[in-house]
Amino acid sequence: MKKVEQAKKRVSFYLRMPDAKEVYLAGDFNNWDASSLPLSKDSRGAWRKTLTLSKGQYQYRYIVDGKWYTDPNKEQCPNPFGGQNNVLKV
């Protein structure tokens, strides 16, 4: 029997924070590890990271200079800590 591979898609994360020193990405796609996915800063102060994810819905947040940050410009849902997570649909 042939194994059916689930379709994956490249997804780009973008956060404009020119004054930030470091930005990481954490979510249910990496077990909320706050240090495993650093973003790269471009010359205009935008932070970027591209991942390949399977189809589904994910929750995530950024860690900006050591503090959890929810992007106010993206879809959100409540988290168990009284804050908000961003929502991504792939």
Give a topology summary.
Layout: E1 8-16, E2 23-27, E3 40-41, E4 46-54, E5 57-64, E6 67-69, E7 76-78, E8 84-89
Describe the protein.
The protein has 90 residues and is mainly β. It has a single domain, classed as Immunoglobulin-like (Sandwich). Helix content is 0%, strand content 50%. It has strands at 8-16, 23-27, 40-41, 46-54, 57-64, 67-69, 76-78, 84-89. The radius of gyration is 14 Å and the shape is globular. The model has no long low-confidence stretch (mean pLDDT 93).
The gyration radius over C-alpha positions equals 14 Å
Low-confidence residue ranges: none
N- to C-terminal distance? 28 Å
Strand content: over 45%
Mean pLDDT: 93
Total discrete domains: 1
- What is the CATH architecture term? Sandwich
Shape: globular
Structural category: mainly beta
What's the name of the CATH homologous superfamily?
Answer: Immunoglobulins
CATH topology: Immunoglobulin-like
H/E topology pattern:
EEEEEEEE
Helix content: under 10%
How many helix segments? 0
Number of strands: 8
Tell me about the largest β-sheet.
5 strands, antiparallel
State the name of the first-level CATH class: Mainly Beta
Provide a compact summary of the structure:
By secondary structure, the protein is mainly β. It contains no helices and 8 strands. β5 and β6 form a beta hairpin.
Brief descriptors of the model:
90 residues, mainly beta, Immunoglobulin-like, five-stranded antiparallel beta sheet, three-stranded antiparallel beta sheet
